[in-house]
Design a protein that fits this description.
The structure holds two protein chains of two kinds.
Chain A: E1 2-3, H1 17-24, E2 33-37, H2 41-46, E3 63-67, H3 73-87, H4 97-104, H5 106-127, E4 130-134, H6 141-153, H7 160-173, H8 178-181, H9 198-212, H10 221-232, H11 244-249, H12 252-255, H13 259-263, H14 266-269, H15 297-300, H16 308-323
Helix pairs in contact in A: 3-4, 5-6, 5-9, 6-7, 6-9, 9-10
Chain B: E1 4-7, E2 16-22, E3 26-31, E4 38-43, E5 47-52, E6 60-66, E7 71-76, H1 79-92, H2 112-120, H3 124-131, E8 138-141, E9 157-160, H4 165-173, E10 182-186, E11 193-197, H5 209-220, E12 228-232, H6 236-244, E13 258-262, H7 268-282, H8 289-299, H9 301-322, E14 326-329, H10 336-348, H11 355-368, H12 373-377, H13 390-404, H14 413-425, H15 436-441, H16 444-447, H17 451-457, H18 493-496, H19 509-540, H20 554-557, H21 600-603, E15 619-622, H22 643-646
Parallel strand pairs in B: 11-14, 12-13, 12-14
Antiparallel strand pairs in B: 1-2, 1-7, 2-3, 3-4, 4-15, 5-6, 6-7, 8-9, 10-11
Helix pairs in contact in B: 4-5, 7-8, 9-10, 9-13, 10-11, 10-13, 13-14
GO molecular function, one term (chain A): protein phosphatase binding
GO cellular component, one term (chain A): cytoplasm
Pfam families (chain A): Myotub-related
């Protein structure tokens, strides 16, 4: 599986032999490849006017292009704001709850992202075909797809260390602009420009899969919530900056502590372990039916309801397994 | 009928080809095929509707919708056969006599004594004693011993000490269907009680001295409070409209020391339509998130569930926190009243959160108090306007509570699903007819078997591993929040999409933890044995003996190991445009079954009572599969490169 940004075909239908050679090199003998474009066909076509575009069939004959539209990042922040508003409505009125939830489109985004990731995984696992994923810049929806696909395909990504590596590889090193995206969250009054809960959506998707396969992940929900928090505000330098270049210029490794160094200490790690984890070597396929996707209460209703009863359930689970 | 196809409605895979059988009690589809002779059994009692669809080139489609939310799509090659099947099923699914029902032919091979014992398992007089009555404030009345006062009430009711027979009879004449105020729940800690009745026949201005005395008596039976709540569970408009028909509600001016309250739960017709709309959403093919959420909200279903729950919460609070007694009624006092009293009791008393206690609760508030099972759930062919998912809603309230309080219930989700299943199945006699009187006339206990005994025998399958009798959640009253953002009402896919396994979590936490607990228990027993042995050996001082301890592979035994089965975890439908993308790899062949993802949950009779003989229940049965009950068994996957995937055990 490869990731990139959009090809700069422009309105003249430019081609680039080196680009073609590069991605053709990943094709397995006798097999075609799939390009998963996270924009709708329309959007991809319109991108040509600004110098961007998509891979033309004539130039990439061995690749089949699939458009799996994932909403552009600027829409996502609005979604988050609406969702959080809906969740904070203290009225006892059930009438509008579901329609407010629907109006935020949050779960729709989850469904879109998971579906695209499952498709990418399916190409690889079922077809044995190589995959190239890109959107526009290759820094948002692209990364959601590639990282979730790996969680589906590779059991190592479901271990704590494996997941940490995944985040480092597919988000930090890949250049997801954390500093821009996580500058403000849902409550800010000032005007939003580059903010978007792209990483939170990714974590939510991971939680959805975790809920469907509760025994297949070495980490628990708390781990994901912790990562969400640190992406927005942290005493560690891990999520600072927009890419490796900036981090190196800011001398972060010298001036700050790494989140991982703290998380991976055994006394911290024990809080994030899933007592139900049983290592398996499987590919896990989540259901993306609406009935299977749920609101992530642990994040969105976290401060509204007493977590006491659910915490007690967790403790009970841990004690059953420990005693055994 | 041969060469019938059973379609999988959700996935686009090939249909199963087989033979359709109609028996006196079941519809059975047996799949052709050498190894896995998969069978699908559906009880006629479960059939809710049959739809004959337009004939196509492939044959005549027949859609069977069941009361347990199973939906079966058949395609019958010949139109004439299809029509025959259709007509037959219509008749079979609408019995006219009770004797046609399965419970009268069902034979679990128990002797007469065992059958009797089964019926004695749940004893209501024991239950009232447990509550603390009769006592100084409450007594048993046999005024209804021949059903002479109210034919939908039981023969024994509990009333306040100061309620004489005269008062009871007088009050009954002033209540719809003669359903006078009677005790549902007594809280011995503070003497507060929950009583239930039907609406008073007050019209605009009628009064009844005895009825007013009755309410006084209930109030006086609680010396800790100087007033009584009267809760009318109907919307105010409906209650007011009833006055024009000579019925209505209690006027605070006429009844001394009452505080009157409307709660606003809609009637059976609204609920029937609400369920219908929600099921339509469930039947949508590949709905978007918006379609689903809109559809769900439009049905109003969760709003109704919340209304019932909120009523229960109000009453529980009144009893537990304020120490005030409550009289609950709706119109006839057998639908909303039952729901609300049960929910309140469950919140108040941890006993009802145990397996036995739950059975007792249903027996008390639903069976004994004359909930009209026959009319509501269509045992016999009747008026479609009487059909309504009343007890289903109560059961869902319980599930919603289980999700919020995971340690508080002794039973698990499967227990609730099986209870619901059997309310419609008529395999047991508990939920026949409309009243205790009718059941006794039919001699139900001598001619059928009790569900409670059956469930009790299998209770190991129904336990919640997180339940501990000494846990804080299992003590005292449950106090759920009321705002939707504080108590998230979820769509119960385990019930309404019960048979679409692909939609559910593929690994069951409950089953995993139960397996761990079983293993722990075995290890403890083994430890005990070894300890004894050690003690004996030390006593006899025989140094030569070698202690052999069998280190069995525990995990394999309990099926925790991934190498122990033929289940597969396969991709769902991720692409609507199938032409552009195959959902199956060519190397896989035709053997995948993406919807029938098995979990240990399924193996343990999610479709109950599947023994390999004629006493079978609806669901998917695989006779060749090692598991004795339920679930489809998938043919083993190609062992090639997918050995990892093929051995996925959903524990």
């Amino acid at each position: 599986m490869m990731r990139s940004s959009q090809p700069l075909t422009g309105t003249n239908g430019r081609r680039c032999k080196e680009d073609e050679k590069l991605i053709n090199a990943t094709l397995r003998p006798g097999k075609r490849g799939y390009i998963i474009d996270t924009r709708s066909l329309n959007v991809a076509q319109q991108a040509r006017a600004k110098g961007g575009g998509f891979e033309q069939e004539a130039h990439y004959p061995q690749w089949r292009r699939i458009h799996k539209c994932i909403e552009r990042f600027n829409i996502l922040q609005e979604s988050l704001i609406k969702l959080v508003e809906a969740c904070n409505d203290q009225s006892h009125n059930m009438d509008r709850w579901l329609s407010k939830l629907e109006a935020s489109n949050w779960l729709t985004h989850i469904k879109e992202i998971l579906t695209a990731a499952c498709l990418a995984a399916q190409c690889i696992d079922r077809e044995g075909a190589s995959v190239l994923v890109h959107g526009t810049e290759g820094t948002d929806s692209t990364l959601q797809v590639t990282s979730l696909a790996q969680i589906i395909l590779d059991p190592r990504c479901r271990t704590i260390r494996g997941f940490e590596s995944l985040v480092v590889r597919e988000w930090l090193q890949a250049g997801h602009p954390f500093q821009q995206r996580c500058a403000q969250s849902a409550y800010s009054n000032s005007k939003q420009k580059w903010e978007a809960p792209v990483f939170l959506l990714f974590l939510d998707c991971v939680w959805q899969i975790l809920r469907q396969f509760p025994c297949s992940f070495e980490f628990n929900e708390q781990f994901l919530i912790m990562l969400f928090e640190h992406a927005y505000a942290s005493q560690f330098g891990t999520f600072l900056g927009n890419n490796e270049n900036e981090r190196s210029k800011l001398k972060l490794p010298q001036k700050t502590m790494s989140l991982w160094s703290w998380v991976n200490r055994s006394e911290e790690l024990s809080k994030f372990q899933n007592p139900l984890f049983e290592a398996n070597s499987l590919v896990i396929w989540p259901s993306v039916a609406p009935q299977s996707l749920q609101l992530w209460e642990g994040v969105f209703l976290r401060w509204n309801r007493p977590s006491k009863f659910l915490d007690e359930a967790q403790e009970e689970m841990i004690s059953i397994i420990r005693y055994n | 009928v041969e060469n019938v196809r059973l379609l999988d409605r959700l996935s686009s895979r090939k249909a199963a080809l087989g033979t359709l059988y109609l028996t006196a009690t079941h519809v059975i589809f047996v799949e052709n095929g050498s190894e896995a002779r998969k069978e699908t059994w559906v009880l006629h009692s479960q059939i809710s509707s049959i739809e004959k669809q337009a004939t196509t080139a492939t044959g005549c489609p027949l859609l069977i919708r069941c009361k347990n939310f199973q939906v079966i799509q058949l395609v019958i090659p010949q139109e004439r056969d299809c029509h025959d099947v259709y007509i037959s099923l219509i008749r079979l699914a609408r019995p006219v006599k009770y004797e046609e029902l399965y419970c009268f032919s069902f034979n679990p091979k128990l002797d007469k004594e065992e059958r009797e014992q089964g019926w004695k398992l749940v004893d209501l007089s024991e239950e009232y004693n447990r509550m603390g009555v009769p006592n100084n404030y409450w007594q048993i009345s046999d005024v209804n011993r021949d059903y002479g006062v109210c034919d939908s009430y039981p023969t024994e009711v509990y009333v306040p000490k100061s309620a004489t027979a005269h008062i009871i009879v007088g009050s009954s004449k002033f209540r719809s269907r003669r359903r006078f105020p009677a005790l549902s729940y007594y809280c011995k800690d503070n003497n507060a009680s929950i009583c239930r009745s039907s609406q008073p026949l007050s019209g605009f201005s009628a009064r009844c001295l005895e009825d007013e005395q009755m309410l006084q008596a209930i109030r006086k039976a609680n010396p800790g409070s100087d007033f009584l709540y009267v809760v009318d569970t109907r919307p105010k408009l409906n209650a007011m409209a009833n006055r024009a028909a000579g019925k209505g509600y209690e006027n605070e001016d006429n009844y001394s020391n009452i505080k009157f309250q409307f709660i606003g739960i809609e009637n059976i017709h609204v609920m029937r339509n609400s369920l219908q709309k929600m099921l339509e959403v469930c039947e949508l093919k590949s709905p978007s998130m918006s379609d689903f959420l809109w559809g769900l909200e439009n049905s109003g279903w969760l709003k109704h569930i919340k209304a019932i729950m909120d009523a229960g919460i109000f009453i529980a609070k009144a009893v537990a926190e304020e120490g005030v007694s409550v009289l609950v009624h709706c119109s006839d006092g057998w639908d909303r009243t039952a729901q609300v009293c049960s929910v309140a009791s469950l919140l108040l008393d941890p006993y009802y959160r145990t397996v036995k206690g739950f059975m007792v609760l249903i027996e008390k508030d639903w069976v004994s108090f004359g909930h009209k099972f026959n009319h509501r759930y269509g045992n016999l062919d009747g008026d479609p306007k009487e059909i309504s998912p009343v007890i289903d809603q109560f059961i869902e309230c319980v599930w919603q509570l289980m999700e919020q309080f995971p340690c508080a219930f002794e039973f698990n989700e499967r227990f609730l699903i099986h209870v619901q299943h059997h309310i419609y199945s008529c395999q047991f006699g508990n939920f026949l007819c409309n009243s205790q009187k009718e059941r006794r006339e039919l001699k139900i206990q001598e001619r059928t078997y009790s569900l409670w005994a059956h469930l009790w025998k299998n209770r190991a399958d129904y336990l919640n591993p997180l339940y501990r009798p000494d846990h804080s959640q299992t003590q005292g009253t449950l106090r759920p929040q009321m705002a939707p953002c504080n108590f998230l009402y979820k769509f119960w896919s385990g019930m309404y999409n019960r048979f679409e396994k692909g939609l559910h979590p593929r690994q069951s936490v409950t089953d995993y933890l139960m397996a761990v607990k079983e293993e722990t228990q075995q290890l403890e027993e083994e430890l005990e044995v070894l300890r004894e042995r050690l003690a004996n050996l030390q006593k006899s001082q025989l140094n030569d003996n070698k202690i052999k301890s069998k280190r069995q592979d525990r995990s394999k035994e309990l099926g925790l190991s991934t190498s122990n089965n033929s289940l597969a975890n396969t991709p769902q439908e991720y692409s609507n445009d199938l032409k552009s993308f195959p959902s199956r790899s060519p190397s896989q062949g035709d053997e995948e079954d993406s919807a029938l993802i098995l979990t240990q949950d399924n193996l343990k009779s999610s479709d109950p009572d599947l023994s390999a003989n004629s006493d079978q229940e609806s669901g998917v049965e695989d006779l060749s599969c090692r598991s004795p009950s339920g679930g489809g068994c998938l043919p083993s996957e190609d062992s090639g490169k997918d050995s990892d995937e093929a051995v996925f055990l959903a524990v």
